[in-house]
Amino acid sequence: MIEFINVSKQYGPDARALDSVSFHIPQGGIAFLTGHSGAGKSTLLKLTAALEQPTRGNIVIGDAPLNRLSEKHLPHLRQRMGIVFQNHHLLLDRNIFDNVALPLVFAGYGYADIQRRVRAALDKVGLLAREKDNPCSLSGGEQQRVGIARAVVNRPKLLLADEPTGNLDPEMSMEIMDLFRRFNQVGVTVLIATHDLNLLREMGFPLLSLRGGKLIHNDFEHPRMKHPA
Amino acid sequence: MTGKTPLLSRLAYSDHGYAIKHSLHYLGTARIATLVTLLVLGISLALPAVFGLVVVNLKRIDVSQDDANSLTLYLHPRVSDLQGVELAGDVQKRSDIRSTRYISRDEALETFRKHSSLADATDTLEDNPLPGAIVAVMAQDDGDESRIRLLSETLSAYPEVELVKYDLNWLKRLRAILALLSRTVVLIGILLVLTALLVIGNTIRLEMLRRSDEITVSRLIGATALQIQRPFLYSGVIYGILGGVLAIALVGIVVTSLSGPAEVLSGLYGSTYKIQGLGLQYSLILLGSSTLIGLVGAWLVARWQMTKILQ
Ligand SMILES: Nc1ncnc2c1ncn2[C@@H]1O[C@H](COP(=O)(O)OP(=O)(O)O)[C@@H](O)[C@H]1O
Ligand SMILES: [Mg+2]
After folding, report:
1. Which ligand 1 atom sits closest to the C-alpha of A39?
2. For residue A110, what are the CA distances in angstroms to A79, A101, A155, B225?
3. Domain end position, chosen among B167, B202, B221
4. Closest partner residue to A83 among B214, B220, B227, by Cβ?
5. DSSP β-bridge partners for residue A59
6. In chain B, how many domains are there?
7. Range of the domain at B193
8. Helix (H) or strand (E) holding B306
9. What pLDDT is stored for residue B274 in this prediction?
């Protein structure tokens, strides 16, 4: 589902964020992406969502090689994945329903579908009763759950999360992780960047570890590593 | 299926409706900024419209003033008043003459006495030295010199007519001034349209900065470049429409407050001149241009700003 083949990302002459990274997370898999701050986790996720282009190497999402996609096709690619961030990125000028509806509006759904899907997504994260409220009125954990509802409302096959529990206490973090696990159980491929060691131990998902831009640990097989760069 | 949901909700969650709804909402929250922008916009659109109306109205004075569009036929002194009136009637029957007025010799003397400093001198004269005259207003008012010269030659052919005079000079001067004014209006108009574009552009730029979260999020969840820009294009259009309405209202106020004095003035000249306002046609043109200015201003800035915010 996510395949990196000798991917490097250079932000400047001395700023190498990723260094020849290769791995393959199969469809329906779930994984933690770990590493210290600055190890390259966010960069790896941005490359996966085609928000940045790799300096070298190839990335394949599903069966789409990203380097063959033109800028025009990227929005459609992103519509088929869900992205969750540490700072939830909710829009505070509109209510929770409208926040979660946004991806569907862009994808061109009719109102009946939008209503049904938004309510289903909010129901899954336990916030259906708050749909008319402003995101400001929610706790940090609840806001993050709205962010997750927005990420999954399009029923994506792939879910990316960048430190989704960074600002949350352990109990709330576990709730969020449980949500991800449930989505994974219905077939969604999930990749979660985190440096929370407690979570890693508790959840026991396969690991990908980065250090200084290099992949130093990989719990998945990596068939193409037979051909090093 | 869709028939069951209220139309308004369906519109509000369509691609365009959603953008319009949240742009309106933003304009409502940024009330002061919105108001200032609308005022500047309204004024900078109303000014060229007012100048334009000044020119339009001067042009109407130009063609509506019979004095400016008439020939004076001076008759031989031996022609009697009766013959003069008869001739005036004949001339009026011509298709190229709209109306005539006979000025008898006595009337001419009376007028001369009233208006001339030489009046006293006439008292010593035994005979009235002034001829009778016919003022003939032409049917066409294009001020075409060769046509008027031809007509005046035709009219001099009447045996009773001694001389035909016409004064195109002040008409020419008015035309020259009007031409100058028209050009000034166009130049001022261009400058003020640029002002309007800058104001809209700057307002949209600020709006994009304040709504940069929305731009980031929209991109992340798969909005196309056009979809990301759409709320801001609609903001521009909304500014354009509201600014246009404001400009029309301002012009209306100016016209109303000037029409009283203008009527008094034209009354003094014995005419019933009425100031011409924008009317439906010019109002629509003003509204249309201001909407277009809003869209173009927003579009230019959105394109340029997008690349900056998304880096
Ligand atoms: N836009 C950028 N421009 C320059 N350097 C960057 C940029 N984004 C990330 N980096 C650098 O790349 C490295 C990896 O960053 P990041 O992927 O954010 O790490 P993490 O998410 O693991 O903390 C860091 O050294 C960071 O300074
Ligand atoms: Mg990071």
Report:
1. 22
2. 16, 11, 16, 21
3. B167
4. B220
5. A4
6. 2
7. 2-63+172-310
8. helix B279-309
9. 74
Domain containing A96 equals: 92-154
* The predicted structure's pLDDT at residue A227: 45
| B46 and B81 together in one domain | no
Whether A99 is in a domain gets the answer yes
Mean pLDDT, chain B, integer = 85
Same domain (yes/no): B182, B280:
yes
Tell me which of A107-111, A174-178, B61-65, B293-297 is least confident.
B61-65
Contacts of B214 in chain A (CB under 8 A): 91, 93
B243 with B213, same domain: the answer is yes
Domain boundary among B116, B134, B167: B167
Q: For ligand 1, pick from A7, A8, A10, A11 the residue to mutate: most ligand atoms within 8 Å of CB.
A: A11
Condensed to tens digits (0 to 9), the pLDDT of residues B123-175 reads 666 677 788 899 888 887 776 778 888 888 988 899 989 988 887 776 677 77
- Of A141, A184, A142, nearest in space to A159 by CA: A184
CB contact at 8 A, B231 and B22: yes
Q: Is the pLDDT of residue A168 over 60?
A: yes
- Specify whether B247 is located in the same domain as B132: no
ipTM of the complex: 0.87
Subunit contact B222:A106, Cβ cutoff 8 A? yes
Identity of the amino acid at A36: H
Residue A225 above 80 pLDDT? Answer: no
pLDDT one-digit tens code per residue, B238-274: 999 999 999 999 999 998 888 878 777 766 665 666 7
Return the DSSP state at A72. Answer: G
Look at residue A114 and tell me if it is in a domain. yes
A37 lines ligand 1 (CB under 6 A): yes
Does residue A166 or residue A1 have the better pLDDT? A1
Given the DSSP bridges, would you call strands A189-193 and A56-61 parallel, antiparallel or unpaired?
unpaired
Return the residue whose CA atom lies nearest to atom 27 of ligand 1. Answer: A38
The domain that contains B105 carries what CATH number?
Answer: 3.30.70.3040
- Is 50 exceeded by the pLDDT of residue A228? no
Give the A:B interface size as CB pairs under 8 Å: 81
- Do B7 and B142 belong to one domain? no
Same domain (yes/no): B156, B213? no
Does residue A112 line the site of ligand 1, with CB under 6 A? Answer: no
CA distance B9 to B14: 9
pLDDT (average), residues B186-214: 92
Determine the average pLDDT of the residues in A109-126.
94
Q: Is residue A44 a part of any domain in this protein?
A: no
Q: Cα separations (Å) of A191 from A32, A221, B124?
A: 6, 16, 118
Say how far apart CA B98 and CA B119 lie, in whole Å.
33
Please identify, by atom number, the ligand 1 atom nearest to the C-alpha of residue A195. 22
